[in-house]
Amino acid sequence: MAVDGGAWEWSGSLRFLYSLPIFLVIVGMRGGVRPVLRALRADPLAWALWSTVGFGLFYAPLCLAADLAPGWTVAATWQVTIVCGMFLAPLLYDDERGRIPAKGVALSGLILAGVFLSQFGGHGGPSAGMAGGIAVVLVAAVAYPVGNRRTMELAGTGLDTFQRLLAMSIGSLPFWAAVAVLGGVRAGAPSSAQLTVTLVVAVSSGVIATSLFFAATHRVRRHPLRLAAVEATQAVEVVFVALLEPLLTSTDVPGALAWTGIAAIALGVVLYAFAGRPATGGCGRG
């Protein structure tokens, strides 16, 4: 989207303006709209705050960063999110969920090392003038897991994944409306190409990928190591970027250092899958 042009404000806001009616249809077909509205009425300020953090302060900075820094820098820096949720947990919870698992720290460190090797090994290292892009991506990397965790608490057992996503879409709507107005004032109306590509992103990333990710994190929300394992799977996107970017944008193929990083990412995710498995035997289940 950044290469094709168009205001970053439209790239961000259109994704959520598109996905809101899609979630409304999905939840409506399942007869689940009323519980969402009850939850929003019960605590409107909390839903507005944490939905804006989880959606607004996650995606708007990423779209801005794509205008400020190369795509590989954005992709590499974003992976810091796989440890942000884990290290912020003690500030968010006062029970077992606030524990920082030692295995999680080690495996996330391995994956992050692989991320930076794959990116810097394939692109010759960072260049000057990227500080602004890196800074706003770090904001997004913190906001995404915090918003996810806080809205999981708000949803509790009363809302399923699609209902929570609908509630978050409604809660963050004022933020996205303001961003859209800003984009209209600064750059005018979005082009037809931008309208089309943001619709594709809204369906593939905003609806399909986010629903799967939120469902997975909800299932393991009370297990710090398993939650860290789910969040770590986001790093696999770097593998696809490294493999497919040369085909789509005519960049150089990954070098030896980049392939070493890709191997480290794959190893870390596989080890996470085993480390996060529930223990067998014993007298109880987690």
Q: What would you say this structure looks like, in words?
A:
The protein is mainly α and 286 residues long. The protein has one domain. The chain has 13 helices and no strands. Helix 1 crosses helix 10, helix 3 runs parallel beside helix 9 and helix 6 (102-123) runs antiparallel to helix 13. The longest helix is centred in the C-terminal third of the chain and has 28 residues, at 192-219. The chain is globular and about 55 Å long. The termini are far apart. This is Multidrug resistance efflux transporter family protein. Keywords: Membrane, Transmembrane, Transmembrane helix. The chain crosses the membrane at residues 16-33, 45-69, 75-93, 105-122, 128-146, 166-189, 195-215, 227-244, 256-275.
